[in-house]
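User: two proteins, same treatment. go.

Assistant:
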Amino acid sequence: MKKTLVIIFTLVMAVSCTEDFETININPNYPASAQPELLLPGIQREMAYNWGSQGWEEGFTVVQYGARLQFTSGDTYNWSPSGDPYDNAYASLRDVENIIRDTRENEDAQNYYGVALVMKSWIYSYVTDAYGDVPYSEATSGIENGNVTPVFDAQSTIYAGILSDLEMANTLLTDADNISGDIFYDGDIAKWRKFANSLRLRLLMRISDVDNATAVAGMTQITSNPSLYPIFESNDDMTFVEWNSDNPQPKYDTRSGSFDEVRLSQTLEKRLKELGDNRLYVFAQPTSNSEKGIFSEDFDDYVGMPNGLDDEAALGYSPTGNPDESGSNFISRLGILLGCRACNPEEASATASHTIIMSYSELQFILAEAAERGFITSGDAAMYYENGIKASFEYYTERVAAGGWSDITNAMQATDLDAYVAQDAVAFTGDSDDNLAKIALQKWISLFYTGFEGWSDWRRTGMPEVTPGPDAVNDGRVPVRFQYPNSVKSTNSENYNAAVQNMGADNINTKLWWDVY
């Protein structure tokens, strides 16, 4: 009798343990899935913060919006292998893939699926434009099958996938505003469609010199049917993160020294002064030596420094050549719009500065170039060009007003935009080469602090000119890509080596697939 009861008890326990095995062994701290509205804001915040941080580093210095006063290795092209943005991108892409997996077949969640495809496309464009060939087709397969050594796909393959996903997202996104947790557009699906198509135009322009047929066909498809393929129509549609006091703009809480390491570049200073461009008031502050605070109507109080100085030369740089007038007091900080609380305790704003992912102004310059080069027949190149200039001025006027800086706001509002556009150095009245150079210059100005988008556009066009500084290494060549992270070389060496064989040497001078300038 006792033996029989022991056997029965053992069988019951065995069945019970087997039935409960999966439940018991699920880690509650790492759920297999999560609601998309909980995943989406984290993805957006982390990637926007990374994009903004990259804008502060290479984004400012490579194409010379800013110059380094201290720790100048980045400005002299003494670059090391970089895990940024690689690590952040793939950490976020895992969560993007979770949203896609859980919404793809759910008819009630197609807007989340469409938004996830747009986020996936933006993040992949960011990481591939940093490194070139990167994991794509197998990148997040570890979620499903444990593949932790994904292949590196050719950049051409990645772009094809991105462009296809953006086209699909435009179809998936409906008129129903039924998503939450969205810190880009607060659930406005119509604006997500505009972002999908505007981003697609950015990337089509990127490949226009290496795959012109695809670029022209895609641009024509979008611009010839605005009702089916809506794009940004004003600054209200642009993609950005508006920070709040609990999550302030990325440089607000940094220490004063970290903010002060980047100063106004002499390149940006000279170009804005030559144009009489009041955006100088927004992008820079008067020198401390001028004792004018955060604003002066006198352009002479704004002074930049050369790029590409070594540490000693940078710290001792004197704009006048007088050694008694050297150092940080005689060089302009970047504008109060980006100011940190420690260095401007009375004037800095936690919320006035946006982290811009893509602006309406940028889109207008893309369309201007497309029209000027004959890629599209919709619209007029001069119209797009002037729209881009005016949109940039209007955007920055609105942002300094939001920060409460009335003197800067008044100076921006007083700008005579018609006169600005009519001056010889700006007017769209030259031959095609001259007009394209003017588009490139105005687009470069408008891309101030937009990730490293200014660098990407320069790599594609070579405009406007970037002159390496006097202490630049790398044989005086401007870098055209990041090196892969060391961790990738050690943990995925076989596929890393295959990528290097496909692309060329893993150094900062190996051009990307679309970079044929």
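Protein 2:
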Amino acid sequence: MVFTLQRYIFRELFKVFALATIGLTLILSLGGVLQPVQEYGVGPKQVVHILVYFMPITLTFVLPMAALFASALAYGRFASDNELDACRASGISLLTLVYPGLVLAILVAIANLVLSFHVMPHFVHLAEKALKADAKQILFRNIERRGFYELPPDGEYLLYADYADTKNDTLHGIVVVENERGAIGRIRTAGAARIHFDPHDRFNEIRLDVFDARQMRAMDTFWGVIGKASVTYEFGSLLGDDIKFKKVNEMKQIRANLLLFDPISKAARAAYSQLAVELLAQDIARTLARPEDGVYRLVGPDRFIVFSAKSCGLPDKKTVGLVGPIRAEEFDSSGRRLRTLTCNKAVILADEDVTGPGLVLTLSQPQVEETGQRMMNYIVGDLAMPKPLTERLHRAGLLETTVPEGASSVLGSAPSSMLDGLQRDLVKKIKRTGVSIKAEMNSRLVFGLGCVPMIMIGIGLGIINRGGHLLSAFGASCLPSAVLIVAIISGKHVTENKTAQGVSGILIMWAGLAALTVLAAWLYAKLSRN
């Protein structure tokens, strides 16, 4: 008889729980799709895919609320119809009657933990792959609608185009603006470009095969003619690379190797590139100052260049500035002189290739010594860092080299303000990532375990509020749930903002769970006495 009664109660609970879960999931999932639709301009097919992929994210929050609603409603009706009193008068204990609700609470807690630690991050990655597969259509759709596209996730590059030819994957009238923390950096223009997308597991890559290309830096007054070239831009996750979207094993891997986390990897590569530039500037200045030498040599795969200059400096990030008079001799791989150029200003730009930064030498308004011809701009690309400098940069791992202690040992002197800023940004991201992992793992665990006392409180308040409106018990039971959510959010903020006292934030989260558990125990002690 007791089993039949418990099965009856559980069936009533499950009916309300299932209907509430379906309704809330559909409503909240549709709301979650709006942001990628507005931001990326995805099509109808992609909307359906994203809706499916976002459902596990929604279920993480919907399941506890649906179970809370079902328990307050079902037990409230059970008590208001005097069925609870009849059962207790027959000698059935309160614990026996609330056993179906406890089973539902435990099942929801287990489901929530599995969803938050494993399923939800997996489906976020699936949504990311779906957007990557349609990245080209997203770009062309944004160009057609707005005339530009901001490369995610941080808008480092803005791509403008006058016309998009979707049949031939070609853009016409292109302007690419590099955004350097709110300031305009390098500007590139092209008459036309064919677009190629190469999605990777950890990042995306877009290659533009451009025609009639030119480039200029914001500080310069001249345009450099590149002509026909291939330009590659790397950008991160379309949905944002965040710890909250990582599986538990991914978070453990990031703890063991911080470079697996893209924001840290990107910051480390930026600091490494600046370190390489400063090391190169040191070596150039030292070489130019030698009376017996006075020239510096940079080698590429098919040519090398030998130049002299009055002095060199660091005018901008990833840039070595040369001050004239500058004399540069260009040779092919066999040692035959191709041309000799003279000018008063030149820059050497470095990329972020950690295996060995590539260098580009740009001579401003040079004159060809052999013919007397004056050029607007002359670019010698695909040059390599000198081997001794590369060996110094590779003495240790990427992080060990770029942090302040490692950089100081490589340079032998204090870093510039630019490198110091990049190092501080890297160290800040490393600390933030560590505390974010700690906060995320604890918050998921607290919220999952908190489903049990949360639902049990809903059952208790449903029984107590038997004479009132059925929904009032649900409303009252939402208040303790809100306390738990506030404790989790507050604890995460304290942990992430005060890294030195991160434990206090974790204690706030667990204190919220402890408060809910104490409230549930007090509530059932009161019901047992009555």
